[in-house]
Write a structure and sequence with these properties.
Length: about 60
């Protein structure tokens, strides 16, 4: 797959318990709020269409 994005963010998230894709996306948006500055606010970028697809892969190891 060819990436044409200006920015590509990779993150590993580990959780104890059952999580869904929406939980992971919500956690990323919540934890980065105010962290990246006003120019890179993920919520604003998502609403304006500047942040496209958010891929989440979930793997269960104990349940």
């Amino acid at each position: 797959m060819e990436d044409t994005s200006k920015y590509l963010i990779h993150a590993d998230v580990t959780a104890d318990g059952v999580v869904e894709r929406s939980d992971v996306v919500g956690a990323i948006f919540g934890q980065t709020e105010g962290l990246l500055g006003d120019d890179l606010d993920l919520r604003d970028l998502r609403q304006s269409g500047k942040v496209g697809r958010i891929d989440v892969e979930i793997a269960s190891t104990a349940g």
